[in-house]
Amino acid sequence: MSDILEVYEKLNGKIPQKEFQKLVDEKMDIMGGLCDERTAALLVAHDLGIEGASAIKIKEITLDKKNVEFLGKVTGTFPPREFNRTDGSIGRVTNVSIADETGEITMVLWDELADAVKIGDIKEGDVFKVRGYVKEGQRGLEVSIGRGGGIQKAEGEKVTVKDPMIKISEVSAGMGNVCVRGVILSKQDPRTFNRKDGSPGSVQGTMIGDDSGKIRLTVWDNKLKDMEAFNAGDSVEVLHAYTRESINGIEIQVGNRGIIRKSDAMVEYEEQVAKIGDIEADKSYNIKGVVTGIDGVREFTTKDGKPGRLCGVHVSDESGRIRVVFWGEHANFAETLSVGDKILVTDAQAKINFRQEIELSANWRSMVRKL
């Protein structure tokens, strides 16, 4: 039994088969090739008040279902990329995030459908009926719209999308499609490098926080330009990122599918600080205090021949006084300080120096700012 006849039988003779076929052909003409005959038949059945498809919710999509049909709203699109097929022809592919009230999934579109994203026929906020097959992607399940699948704009349909944002404290290892709101606490200078294949790369580290905690955000390559508009204190949204474990714990990675944009909602973050008099060696601390002395900047050469800088600054609160050594970029910040300035230093490592005194080391993991 053909797919279209299977759908028609669900109408139970509501209209003649020839009329149904005519409506299906008209639907395909309207779509301009954006759906196959079966999807057009399902849409006609829906228009006639008969739900020919066994639609499911996004949270119900599993690998064993193979082919799925669902209704969803586009929550993000990505520029198509070209690739060479084995026959020498050039193909196009892109990813689209689509969601309903139960969750979100990546939809993979090829060739003409990828072009539809490029020209804006498929854009954020549009609602579609989707028919495709489920496969395992690099960051979780995906629905690919290949031969036998299709998408159709669902005019008049409303889809309530679950807020994808989670708290920073909820971020864990192995997550894909991570969406968080945070306030920028600090930004490192971008750096460039060469990959194993010789291609150039660039990376920038940023710390963000919300009322549940803070986390390191690592931004790669062309996404660095999105960070240029933001400074410490700005609230941002991070969408479609993923997590990775490093020696410093779990980080959020923003690659070519990630989005960083201004947040309309202000995000609050308050650093928990320790009293200087309570600091012990071999632990990490956040401190807030007044600058009571500055040693000045000292330049040196590292073991591998690279230039380095450090600056010792004495910081006091009501419980005591401690020397904080600012390394690298932070030495530039320390050079601008004056006695009497109030500063915040986070994630500084306490250690015993050669004078057998406890001091704090503010390195690339730390955040420093004037209050």
Instruction: List the uncertain runs.
Output: none
Q: Helical stretch count?
A: 6
Helical content stands at: 10-25%
What topology, given as strand order, has the largest sheet? Answer: 1-3-4-6-5
Structural class: mainly beta
> What is the element string, with H for helices and E for strands?
HHHEEEEHEEEEEEEHEEEEEEHEEE
Fraction in beta strands: over 45%
- CA radius of gyration is 28 Å
Number of spatially distinct domains: 4
The number of distinct β-strands equals 20
In the CATH scheme, what's the topology name of the largest domain?
OB fold (Dihydrolipoamide Acetyltransferase, E2P)
CATH superfamily of the largest domain: Nucleic acid-binding proteins
Q: Could you give the distance between the termini?
A: 73 Å
CATH class of the largest domain: Mainly Beta
